[in-house]
Amino acid sequence: MKKLIISALAIGVLLSCGEKKEELTLSGLKQTDFESTVDGKRTTLFVLKNKNGAEACITNYGGRLVSVMVPDKSGKMTDVVLGYDNINDYTSSDGNFGALIGRYGNRIANGKFILDEVEYTLPQNNNGHCLHGGPNGYHTRIWDPKLLNDQTLELTYLSQDGEAGFPGNLNIKVTYTLEDNNAIAIKYEATTDKATIVNLTNHSYFNLSGDPSAPIVDQTIMINADNYTPVDETLIPVGLDSVEGTPMDLRMPIAIGAHIDDSFEQLVRGRGYDHNWVLNAKGDIHTLAAKAVSKKSGISLEVYTNEPGVQFYTGNFMTGDDKGKQGVVYPHRGAFCLETQHYPDSPNQPQFPSTVLRPGETYVSECIYKFTVVCD
Length: 376
Hints:
The protein is mainly β. Helices cover 7% and strands 36% of the residues. The chain is globular.
């Protein structure tokens, strides 16, 4: 009996001295599931928290927002972005869940542009066009991280001259801040040693309902824009047009699915909404650019930016077989994106605001995703 007691005590000591169970993030993520080496650089997961208990998780692989936890109308903390719960799923996917996009977000026609009488050729990865900087854009790069404080993460990356065909060594700094009002502020800064083009954005997929297995068609959208950029059959802009009298008029809140399958030519071409809206805010970051709401959860997303446009995309190319965090299968139109940006194909359309950056200048782009709760 004495020997048995001693053995039991020894086992207890061994268990108490063993490794502690890894603490999960509020969204159920394990930091170790994001620790790896990709292209010779280390990846990990960073957790930002504010005084309200809200949480944002970011990996330096592609500078991606992995999860965003904010309260719903009952006070339950709710994840409002889609993504994966481990680094392997991110590296094996060609998707852009939560990613930083560049050197040029959106499309450049035929993967070509002319700058200072020199023609540059880019990867053609979307209907013969260059989309989001090509298949190896910034969403696949390992950013150098620096955790400034509990609420702020700084990511830097040197995009070398000729990378994906773009000219100039581009030094980029992106700062994510989880503010105390439950807003995620994203600030992009960049300088170059040679004339180039820059259009950076974030490609988070939002579902505000608290149920990522459900489509977002019943969530409402408002975009503060009188005009948008209609597209051709390959989704390249063909000028500006008024939203008046069309399903593209989102100036008043309306269910995302209300007209998404209308026979309107622009919606047919995009398989739903996949267009750039010309914001009435005209670069004033204090003016509301867009707002989405889930009546089910009561969660509201307000978007503010100094950019002239926002790309509203409704998950039209989601296949319905992608398995995300906690094994949830994301359905067709299971999320929407609001990508603050300059207009698509601006380098080839001089009537659009310029995306040219020259030595001695600093590119600055800001986006605020603010989460609140609305009453029924």
